[in-house]
Amino acid sequence: MSTGTLALIIFVVIVLQVGIFVLVGLYRQKQELRKIGLQVDVEPNFASPASQPVESTTTEAWSGFRKFIVQRRVMEDKAQSICSFYLTPVDGEPLPAFKPGQFLTFKLQIKDPVNGESKNIVRCYSLSDSPQPDHYRVSIKRVSAPADHPDFQPGRSSNYFHDHVKEGMQLSVKAPSGHFYLVEEEPLPIVLVGGGIGITPMVSIVNTLLNSGSSREIWLFYGLRNSADHVMKEHLQTLQRAYKNFHLHICYSRPGEQDIEGVDYQHKGHANIKRLQLTLQMKRHQFYVCGPRAMMESLVPALEEWGVANEDVYYEAFGPATLPKHKKSKPQPSKPVEIGQEITVTFSKSGKSIIWNPDAESLLELAEDNDIGVDSGCRAGSCGSCQTALESGDVEYSQEPDADVEIGHCLLCISKPKNNLTLTV
Ligand SMILES: Cc1cc2nc3c(=O)[nH]c(=O)nc-3n(C[C@H](O)[C@H](O)[C@H](O)COP(=O)(O)OP(=O)(O)OC[C@H]3O[C@@H](n4cnc5c(N)ncnc54)[C@H](O)[C@@H]3O)c2cc1C
Ligand code: FES
What is the DSSP letter of 68? Predict the structure, then answer.
């Protein structure tokens, strides 16, 4: 055999080996994606056009509450504090699509541990997966009593979900809603910042974009304590390996002894403005932020100071425990009220008339400060539980309500009086 023939055979063998190696790699990747439920025919070069529309059905959203059955529960973290619930409609009809970032509203009947009476509790939970034709998924964190008040009753809805909502059980659910969602009109690079349980809408956005074959650059900064709280770790790592346009930055604020930098997480510290500045190029991005109060209060204004236009920042707070007191706007000095110009708020059922305090955040706060019992859940205009009938007068909203408001009613948590007001409470 001549040297040339031998070289040719060696060359062919090497090419064959490389080919087999690549094929096995691709096969494994497809298996991984299939395992986590993402589309498998997307090759990792992502030559697909930017921002393909998310597949949607034409099914109309339902009004009021619809019955869903819990098909599956899956614990998502080592600490077993976050559980996903897979829900299918009892009527078996198709589900309307939703925009990733939106949430479902649940009405639960929960017994008060003190007096044993059942009470309706309304809570919102973000959809945590891309739209699917036959089921929705939400992922719920068990909320304990605050560290400085261990005597308080732990979170009612979240603990009810963890302890009592089993597979096969039925739940009352409102159609997906919410104004925090992926904006697809402008195919800008996307920066998602999720802190703690604020990761849920971000996973929905990531899954939706990657599933649609979008070539938009996506950065996900996920801030959490350490691997014990790390939600959907394997899923996110699989996506990172599979998609070149998906950049995962896990930030552990307090890594555990077993946690390895570069393996379990990328950065020690918080998912804050410094981390974004060190990572991102100076160009226009769309920012989506959802996380605990401290993160929202620092990051949202810091983005503005960094020069990010308001129109490129979308954010959502997750209710009382995490709602920032002051959002983007700087605190306004309180306006002096001239004598005779005060606004009186009358709570007709309680028989109380109170002069409106212009420094109060909302009518809900005014009611609570004066021991007037009003239901509330999210305190952010999302769940609808503080909806109250207006007998007379007008209110103005500090933000657009996410919940549907009946005519002649208002959401106390996000409204202030414009003039003298009478409320049926
Ligand atoms: C749009 C939106 C999306 C959301 N998405 C998610 C999601 O995807 N996943 C998720 O897990 N959560 C999400 N949330 C938060 C969720 O809706 C609930 O707010 C959360 O589960 C806590 O509700 P709970 O009924 O368990 O707690 P609550 O009963 O409302 O209690 C909240 C806290 O108050 C404490 N407390 C009890 N009594 C008192 C008292 N007297 N004074 C002061 N504090 C007291 C409790 O101990 C607890 O720490 C979302 C919220 C919104 C608005
Ligand atoms: S408390 Fe949820 S809308 Fe007001």
Answer: E
Question: What is the architecture of the domain spanning 65-176?
Answer: Beta Barrel (2.40)
Nearest ligand to residue 82 Cα: 1
From the CA of 382, the nearest ligand is 2
Chain-centroid distance of CA 274 in Å reads 23
3-state secondary structure string, 2-66?
CHHHHHHHHHHHHHHHHHHHHHHHHHHHHHHHHHCCCCCCCCCCCCCCCCCCCCCCCCCCCCCEE
Phi, psi of 235 (to 5 degrees): -60, -50
Question: E strands of 227-361, at which residues?
Answer: 246-252, 267-268, 286-290, 313-316, 344-347, 352-355
Burial 72-102 (b: 16+ CB within 10 A, else e): ebeebbebebbbbbbbbbeeeeebbbbbbbb
| Total number of residues shown for the chain | 425
Average pLDDT over residues 53-68: 74
How far does the centroid of ligand 2 lie from the alpha carbon of residue 374, in Å? 10
Strand partners, 175: none
**Span from the CA of 77 to the centroid of ligand 1 (angstroms):** 19
Domain 190-316 grouped into CATH 3.40.50.80: yes
For residue 293, is pLDDT > 80?
Answer: yes
Q: Which CATH architecture has domain 344-423?
A: Roll (3.10)
Task: Give the global pTM.
Answer: 0.83
